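May I ask you for just one protein sequence along with its backbone structure tokens in two labelled lines?

_____
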Amino acid sequence: MSRSNVPTSTSRFIARMPPITIAELLTDLSSLKACEPGDALSLVTIDPSLLPPSLKPSTSDDSDTILSAARELIDLHVEISQRKGLEELAGGRGQVEEIVRRVQDKL
């Protein structure tokens, strides 16, 4: 499809896209080349349900197990990060209460 045959809405979308550098394009192409064909196609396809059945990414138990472990790791990281933030907030709250108490004692 030549650029003159591109629908108007598509050409407006392309015009709003930020310019891509050659290095970024080569990096993206290298990443796609390293993937399985079905996985690469699903990365560049807006709606994976449009993929032909032969190219749909496999959903083996191994990938489900790895994906599940990755999700657990992310959840654990978020929980630990939030816990640290809550501890800092609790410590700050205690300091503020102490300062308010001192100010009230002086009044």
In short: The chain has a mean pLDDT of 74.
